[in-house]
Amino acid sequence: MSLELPIYMDYNATTPVDPRVLEAMLPYFTEHYGNAASHSHSFGWKAEAAVDAAREEVAGIINAETPAREIVFTSGATESNNLAILGLAEMYGQAGGHIITCQTEHRAVLDPCEVLAKRGFEITFLQPDEFGMLTVEQVAEAITDRTILVTIMAANNETGVLHPIAEIGQVVRQARQARPADKQNLFFHTDATQAIGKLPVDIQEMGIDLLSLSAHKVYGPKGVGALYVRRRGPRVRLSPRIHGGGHEHGMRSGTLNTPGIVGLGAACRIAREEMAGESARLAALRDRLEEEILRAIPYVRRNGHPTERLANTANLAFGFVEGEGLMLKMRDIAVSSGSACTSADLGPSFVLSAMGVSDMLSHGSIRFSLGRFSHAGDIDFAVEKIVTAVAELREISPLYDDVLKNGDDGTIEWTKPAGQ
Ligand code: PMP
Predict the structure, then answer these.
(1) Which residue's CA is the nearest one to ligand 1's atom 16?
(2) What residue owns the CA closest to ligand 1's atom 12?
(3) CA 20 to 30 Å from 287, out of 50, 66, 267, 369?
(4) What is the mean pLDDT of residues 256-282?
(5) 311 and 218 within one domain
(6) Does 420 reside within a domain?
(7) How far, in Å, CA of 402 to CA of 246, rounded?
(8) Is 341 a catalytic residue?
(9) Pocket test for ligand 1, best of 214, 310, 313 (most atoms within 8 A of CB)
(10) Whole-prediction pTM value?
């Protein structure tokens, strides 16, 4: 297969629209352009039918029971997270209410929590271990009788690390059921933006009450997503963020983005059908990339958990080089240093910092995230480029010069130089 440059290895930031998804969307721009809320003619009915079919697909990928009532379409996971957290807090909490989250969540979870902290809510930001993982015990210990929400992401966007979501769901459920019948206002939200389409997510088995997802991470279009809101056992009620025509059961007003929603539906259908094979293929490619780099370059370290992580993601710290410098040297490869979502800020990644990764290592860290259109040729080309770029940068690094003369201080478990 011929190599197309530049090579895209930033699928966790966003994905291209799958041509099959685009094809499904196209008629809804020019032919079936009705407003899904127009109940008086066939243009509206056609749009509504397409939206309903997409709702079934979105519900299907998470095993939701009643698509028509439980899937709320939004503009993406940022909005879904805001609706879940702020909407729930306004419905159930008063100042003094308690929310539990994790330090390595996406900003679209952390920032709404900060807003609530300013309004008098108490927020617990749990600290993950050195691998970026929480334990279910940490969550269980943090729950109090004032806790209204536990919000923990399924998979981290920077490291791919997976939290024990099913166990956390069980703990939240048990804590809720232990409360008196009129005080069972305790719910579990998960930002599953990075997990959907990459591994199975089942809201029933995992005890999830609210779940955020986004189309553009699963080969759908940008600007559309969904929030799953449990209807039964327990019923979750949210106070809307956007008021208007009462669409989406009053939870999210505004004319529905029919083509976008059709795209999200098609993306979920394809993901569901192809996920198992795709994940296995990507795991093999990711492992090849990681192993080749770790074998060829001394003073490299993996950030995140060795096994409990997404199949497509590798986050590696290259000692004695700057990630930004490295990226400039490998312009043919699109990767990200820290999170692309926050790369306007050149500080060390807060996700890596929360895991105890030093600023120096964090600045030398690169996230590689593979996807549907990655292939073996990309990996081999990327490895070659990275090996050369790291060698060139280290050649002019006084720090590396010092390490060559005196050895490193032994505090970090690096890959070893050849012969050691
Ligand atoms: N949560 C996570 C874990 C993400 O990776 C992202 C996208 N970077 C978001 C939320 C925000 O999603 P969206 O771009 O759809 O608003």
Answers:
(1) 78
(2) 77
(3) 267
(4) 98
(5) no
(6) no
(7) 65
(8) yes
(9) 214
(10) 0.97
